[in-house]
Design brief:
It is an enzyme of class 1 (oxidoreductase). With 489 residues, the protein is an alpha/beta fold. The protein has helices at 31-35, 37-48, 62-70, 103-111, 141-148, 155-168, 185-199, 202-215, 232-242, 282-306, 312-316, 319-333, 345-356, 365-369, 372-379, 381-389, 395-408, 418-421, 428-432, 438-449, 455-458, 461-477, 479-488; strands at 22-27, 53-58, 77-80, 85-88, 93-98, 117-120, 174-178, 216-217, 221-224, 250-252, 257-260, 277-278. 49% of the residues lie in helices and 10% in strands. Bound molecules: D-mannonic acid (CS2).
Length: 489
């Protein structure tokens, strides 16, 4: 098959959204954005119109940008379950480029008065904050260089420099909307952008800070859709279904959810047309999702990798991992969350098991297990402190951390297997620098010395010791024994 997807090649799928002018700049042109915000935006444009096309900015990867340019910025989202596959072509991107190739353009686009929203999916790892203090990491060499001047490379630097330019060239209102799995992602982003501007000499930062106070909003949002990485087999399957070649297709599960705070300084698309919920309770939605879904997802990924299975559905099909997931969800995460009005937590939990079990998706344990040092910092500290302060002990969250350490920083002589080896993590080097004397030592390095999960957990000695002991059990007696031990406690 040689013809590529374009606005002129017929496909089996209904025509994409007609082209409109851009109103959104999106930083982080990965699969998640293309299967989530883009799909909601397509529904909004179909229902209510508006100049809300999206300029997609990839941070480094040229592959998707090249594919999108060759295809008139069209690509298919394939909604996949064991029962069905359905295709949709959102067609809402007006342009795309790689930030590393054209860093000056990022600032120019953020300052462009036609742009009224900047959305972000740069992952937990893309916000340049220190996990222990939650503040802007001014010691990070990329942030430090951005503060000195020149074209910014960090996301926070790009936003701050974009606001500076915008303040100086008309000061049109702008909303900055984080769509990453961070708690209070709006105020967190605002705090980091402010901190960047405050680090600048007065004459440079003051106008931008005044403009930020006057005309910029940072709504929080909770995003949810499981979007695995694309594989060559999947690309071939989509081509067969579409009838033309698509080099940038995205697989996604049927479930999708977006809860957003309705505070948009310069207007917004009618995302509710795609099912987005506008609510004052975003914090409650975020907590529910980041703890119940993501926290349990991490446990399934690390235990699954240690058991040697490649995917999340393979892992949740193992009886003891399913039991551990049910126990951590119900007894350790759920007590720490307050459900938003109208959300039935039991129903939500039942759906989670069906979602994790979606065997058609092939969601890899190594994908969910990657970047655990930044992801777990969002997922576990609140629930651990809640449990300890109410007289319960979070044995299965301790097991999650022990399994994470076994995967990322395996003690000498222990082989965690290929799926653990495929996980990437920015803290891997710091965790593995120098020998450790057993599990408690490594747990203390991660939680107490490196403060990977914030300051509060660093003082919870009983938790740190339990992580260390479970790690020793994994190494000496195997992951099955550690699961049995944590479940029996
Ligand atoms: C996962 C998430 O990789 C991970 O850490 O837990 O990407 C998860 O699939 C999404 O947040 C679902 O909305």
């Amino acid at each position: 098959m040689t013809a590529h997807l374009s606005r002129h090649t017929p496909t089996s799928v209904a025509a994409p959204t007609p082209p409109v002018a851009a109103g959104i700049v999106h930083l982080g042109l990965g699969s998640f954005h293309r299967a989530h915000q883009a799909v909601y935006t397509a529904a909004a444009l179909r229902a209510a119109g508006g100049d809300w096309g999206i300029v997609g900015v990839a941070s480094r990867s040229r592959r998707i940008v090249d594919a999108l340019h060759a295809q008139d910025h069209l690509y298919a989202v394939a909604t996949i379950s064991p029962e069905t596959t359905s295709l949709e072509v959102p067609g809402v991107h007006t342009d795309s480029y790689v930030a590393a190739d054209d860093p000056a353009r990022v600032v120019a686009d953020l300052a462009d008065p036609r742009i009224r929203i900047a959305t972000l999916t740069v992952t937990e790892n893309g916000y340049s904050y220190s996990p222990s203090t939650q503040r802007l990491d001014v010691g990070d060499p990329v942030v430090a260089a951005d503060l000195r001047g020149g074209d910014p490379r960090s996301t926070i630097g790009q936003l701050a420099r974009g606001l500076q330019r915008r303040a100086a060239t008309g000061g049109e209102p702008l909303s900055i909307l984080s769509c990453d799995n961070l708690l209070s992602n709006g105020s967190h982003t605002e705090k980091l952008v402010r901190a960047f501007l405050q680090e600048l000499p007065d004459a440079e930062g003051a106008d931008a800070l005044a403009y930020l106070d006057r005309a910029v909003s940072f709504p929080s949002s909770m995003v949810d859709r499981i979007v695995p990485s694309t594989t060559p087999e999947f690309t071939d399957r989509v081509a067969a279904l579409l009838g033309v070649r698509d080099d940038a297709p995205v697989p996604a599960e049927p479930f999708t959810m977006w809860a957003i705070e309705d505070r948009f300084a310069g207007g917004r698309p009618a995302w509710e047309a795609g099912g987005a919920v506008f609510t004052d309770e975003v914090g409650a939605y975020e907590q529910l999702k980041v703890r119940l879904l993501n926290g349990t997802h991490s446990l399934i990924a690390y235990l699954g990798a240690l058991r040697g299975v490649p995917t999340i559905p393979d892992a949740i099909a193992l009886a003891d991992i399913e039991a551990a997931a049910a126990a951590v969800l119900r007894h350790e995460y759920e007590p720490s969350v307050t459900a938003p009005a109208g959300v039935d937590v039991e129903q939500y939990e039942r759906e989670l098991f069906a979602r994790w079990g979606n065997s058609a998706l092939g969601h890899r344990t190594s994908q969910v297990g990657s970047d655990g040092s930044v992801k777990l910092g969002q997922r576990i500290p609140g629930p651990v402190v809640h449990a300890l302060d109410t007289g319960d002990f979070p044995h299965l969250i301790a097991l999650t951390v022990a399994a994470y350490l076994a995967c990322i920083a395996p003690p000498a002589g222990f082989d965690p297997g290929p799926h653990a080896a495929a996980m990437t993590d920015p803290a891997r080097e710091r965790l593995t620098a120098g020998a450790t004397r057993g599990g408690r030592d490594l747990a203390a390095r991660a939680i107490v010395d490196l403060h990977l999960f914030g300051e509060d957990l660093a003082h919870r000695t009983a938790f740190v010791d339990r992580v260390g002991d479970l790690l020793d059990t994994i190494v000496q007696r195997g992951v099955d024994s550690a699961i049995a031990d944590a479940l029996a406690a």
